[in-house]
Amino acid sequence: MNAIEVQNxxxxxxxxxxxxxxxxxxxxxxxxxxxxxxxxxxxxxxxLILNLMQQDLGQITINAVSSQTPHxxxxxxxxxxxxxFFPYYTVRGVLEFFGTMKxxxxxxxxxxxxxxLTELDISELANRKLQSxxxxxxxxxxxxxxxxxxxxxxxxxxxxxxxxxIGMRDLKDILRKQRALGKTIFLxxxxxxxxxxxxxxVAILHKGQLLYSGSVxxxxxxxxxxxxxxxxxxxxxxxxxxx
Amino acid sequence: MNNQSKAQLSAMIKDTxxxxxxxxxxxxxxxxxxxxxxxxxxxxxxxxxxxxATASIMVSGTNSLTFMFTFINFWSVIIASIxxxxxxxSDFKDKIIYQYLSFPISRTQYMFTRICGSWLLxxxxxxxxxxxxxxxxxxxxxxxxxxxxxxxxxxxxxxxxFLIIIISFLYSLIAEKIAAFLxxxxxxxxxxxxxxxxxxxxxxxxxxxxxxFKIFGLLIYALLPRxxxxxxxxxxxxxxxxxxxxxxxxxxxxxxxxxxxxxIGNTLIKSKNF
Lengths: 243, 274
What we know:
Radius of gyration of chain B: 21 Å
Number of strands of chain A: 10
Largest sheet of chain B: none
Shape of chain A: globular
Helix content of chain A: 25-40%
Oligomer: heterodimer
Largest interface: A-B, 27 and 26 residues
Number of strands of chain B: 0
Radius of gyration of chain A: 18 Å
Largest sheet of chain A: 6 strands, mixed
Structural class of chain B: mainly alpha
Distance between the termini of chain B: 27 Å
Order of helices and strands of chain A: EEEHEEEHHHEHEHEEHH
Structural class of chain A: alpha/beta
CATH class of the domain at 1-71 and 185-243 in chain A: Alpha Beta
Number of helices of chain A: 8
Helix content of chain B: over 70%
């Protein structure tokens, strides 16, 4: 079963196409990365998946449910590039709020919060307000929110940007652990070296068009690296546009 | 509605109240209102002690409270518009809205919880100001200022505040904070002018000598909630004065025009790209 299916998706801003006839599938239980240079349309696609925007054409389903119905987001956890929430919330307060919104309560919620705090190594920050934390600590609190609720699809927008090497290593471990639990992870990134290490599948988007969608292993088996493959595809398309 | 939906709605309403409670504007208005009420109380005591001619007018707790009622109503309109606007504008700031809309709730539920949360907060402020005035003025005049008619009037003003919050919410979807605030006030003034102009006209007179301004006024009168009638009704109930309104017809108009505003709000929020 596919966790996400995108069919013939188009989105334009005035005369400019942000996405043009994009179709892709994200298989359940895998780590999938959407790659592309700045302005490729990656964030637009994430927004469309989360129904933060309306598409012009095409269809998106999450676990076979149309992304336009709230029910499709029942098992979805999302963290934007820079996690942000109201600064007067404590870390525990944020996780409690997220848990309640995901239908958890009582002891089950408390246990999940304690588990998430431990996983992210931020138990000692639990009762501190977000306004008193560093950017990295706030980001960790955001990552902890991914572990709250019965989520089967985690969507992370540029998760590695702004993380120190330890944070990056921790995040990769967490993502691998979540995959081992059968969860699907959708990443939106342009840090290719990290993606090569942890992803099963990738899609490459450039100027609103999908250039590739397939497994990372296939690229590596062909004797290329993800970075070289990406560079060749993007350069070829740029030359095609010039010609 | 299942238990999960109830818990989500209640968490969102609580979140709205928590967010706005920290607003410096609310704290300022709260302190200013409290000071004004105490000042009013002190002035009233002074007048009573001076035993002058003015005191005979103001000496009744109910009369003095009526004066404060007008003042509190005015402030409530300002607060309702401020919080109606900021309840979602602060979500847009720093893109926190992304988090809310990624939860399994519809945009309609989001709108409903933000409106209800703002209303509870503003109405809480309104009740606080009103009750504080009633208690202080009752002490000053040695007569009980609060009556059943006042309570009924307070309930009617709750409806008035709710409508201001809906109008503010609508404008906050299409305009920046200050522009939305000005639009709300312009709308309230236009509604007021329209209500006062058409109140004493018969249906035949509505369509006589139609000019651009009259057509515009008529449209406002027909389509938007008649806010002035609510405040006039609240005032009449409080002062136990005769009510010069067709209550059945006005209630129906209020229901339809409020539903229209909510439908517009729902359509706007559903079609908005974040």
